[in-house]
Amino acid sequence: MGTQGRIFSINISQAKGMAKSMARSGRLLEGLGLEGDAHAGPGIRQVSLLAIEQIEDFESRVKQAGCDLRPGSFGENITTEGLDLSRIRVGDRIRAGESAVLRVTQLGKTCHGGCSIRRVTGDCIMPQSGIFAVVEESGEIRVQEPLKVASQRKALWSWLKT
Q1: How far apart are CA 155 and CA 160, in angstroms?
Q2: Sheet holding 25-29, edge to edge
Q3: pLDDT digit string, tens, across residues 80-125
C-alpha cells in the first residue's frame, strides 16, 4: 500500500446514524461533501474515508460476533483500496477521480454512544482509522477510479526549491 490507490466503493445515506448504501458513482461538491449524503454540508468532516483492508481485517477479528460488515457499514463515504491511510496527515490533499480534490482535516473521531458496530462487537475502527476531509474542488467520482495523495509538505518543499 502506498500513496496511490483506488475507490473501492462510494457510500451514501439520506439519514444520519445509519449504514450507507453503495453507489457506482457520486459527485463531490466543493465546500459541501458528497451530493445526496446526510452528512454533506459546511464543516470540517464533509467526506469520510476508510480502507477496505481495515474493514476486512476488523471483520476477521470479530467474526464470532456475527456482525456482517461491508463498505458503508462504518458510515464512510469512500471506501479505499490500496491507499495507505496510516501515512496520511492533516493538510494532505487527495485527488479523487479525474478532477475532485479533498483536503484532509481530521484523523479519527470520537465514537458516538449509539454506534451499532461497537454495541455488537465491543470495538469500532472508525475512531482510529477513519479519515475526514473537505472538498476543495468539485468533481464526479466512480468506483475503480484512482485516488492519489499529494502531501502538503511535498508541495511546500517543491515551492521552496524553485
Answers
A1: 9
A2: 33-34, 25-29, 139-142
A3: 999 999 999 999 999 999 999 999 999 988 776 666 676 666 667 7
Phi, psi of 104 (to 5 degrees): -70, 130
156 - beta bridge partners? none
Q: Compute the Cα dihedral for 31, 33, 38, 43 and give only its sign.
A: negative
Q: Is the model's pLDDT at 157 over the cut of 70?
A: no
- Unique residue bearing C-alpha cell 494532505: 92
Residues 6+ apart with CB under 8 A from 157: none
Q: Is 118 exposed, middle or buried (0-12, 13-18, 19+ CB in 10 A)?
A: middle
pTM score over 0.70 = yes
Domains, the chain, ordered by start: 4-161 (2.40.33.20)
Closest of 146, 125, 36, 126 to residue 80, by C-alpha: 146
> What is the DSSP track for 61-72?
HSGGGT----TT
Mention every residue, 6+ apart, whose C-beta is less than 8 A from residue 85. 49, 50, 51, 54, 129, 131
- The mean pLDDT value for 121-148 works out to 90
